[in-house]
Specification:
single chain, alpha+beta, Immunoglobulin-like, eight-stranded antiparallel beta sheet, 3 helices, 12 strands
């Protein structure tokens, strides 16, 4: 359906040409022909100023006083900083904030370390120091190890045999306080009696048994027990054969 038909249905009486003429309005005043300048008398009822300019004012800001405002706040717990967690630091006498925003620490003292207090440890290079507040240097430890490695072992001691026992029995003590007892002895006039007595400084704290081979020929060998007491005496715990081979070590 055309616009003309809609107009007829709406009550217009006339031809389509007459309807088109009815749509035209009255002629206005002639405009500027584009070859010269024109004058604007007013814009929105505002007349031009002395220079011919029309200044339009800005619209006023809207009044928002009647509108509701919503503010949301989120609480944040202020934690104290530690060595493992970020947090707040209180600025005090020995702590300040520089112009660049960095935290500066100055002043204050750190105590000397002791067996009960943490602090600064002084190094000591001496080998004969008895101080408990200083630490040995790596060089001091090396010197101790060198002394131990280069230390000559003490001479062996020949132990006097008793009750007719013959042969050879010796002992020595190393730098760790371990006594090494070794030798071969032959049965004496009292096979069950004391074989020998170790000198003072080479005797065990507690009595103990140790096994030793005993034999009279190349084919009749067996093992027997010897008892070493804190008084240094060595006695057989059974009747030995001709020879007894002793090899034992113990700590003092």
């Amino acid at each position: 359906m055309t616009a003309y038909q809609i107009a007829v249905n709406g009550g217009f009486v006339g031809t389509e040409a007459e309807w088109l003429l009815s749509l035209e309005g009255a002629k206005g005043e002639p405009g500027i022909d584009g070859t010269g300048s024109g004058t604007v008398s007013s814009v929105n009822d505002i007349e031009p100023d002395a220079n011919g300019n029309v200044v339009l004012p800005l619209p006023p800001e809207p009044d928002l006083s009647g509108l509701a405002t919503k503010v949301e706040l989120r609480l944040h717990e202020a934690k104290i900083a530690s060595s493992t967690e970020l947090g707040h630091v209180k600025v005090g006498q020995n702590l300040s904030i520089g112009s660049d925003g960095k935290l500066n620490a100055s002043g204050g003292t750190v105590p000397d370390a002791s067996t009960t207090v943490k602090g600064i440890v002084k190094l000591n290079d001496a080998l004969n120091s008895s101080l408990t507040t200083e630490a040995a240097t790596a060089n001091a430890v090396k010197q101790v190890n060198d002394l131990k490695a280069n230390k000559a072992q003490e001479s062996q001691i020949i132990i006097t045999l008793q009750n007719g026992w013959g042969g050879n029995l010796r002992c020595y003590k190393n730098q760790f306080g371990v006594v090494q007892l070794f030798g071969m002895v032959t049965v004496g006039s009292l096979p069950s009696g004391t074989i020998a007595t170790l000198p003072i400084g080479y005797r065990p704290v507690n009595a103990h048994f140790f096994s030793s081979p005993t034999a009279s020929t190349a084919t009749d060998g067996r093992t027997m027990e010897l008892l070493l007491r804190p008084d240094g005496t060595i006695t057989p715990n059974a009747t030995p054969l001709k020879n007894v081979y002793i090899e034992n070590s113990f700590r003092l």
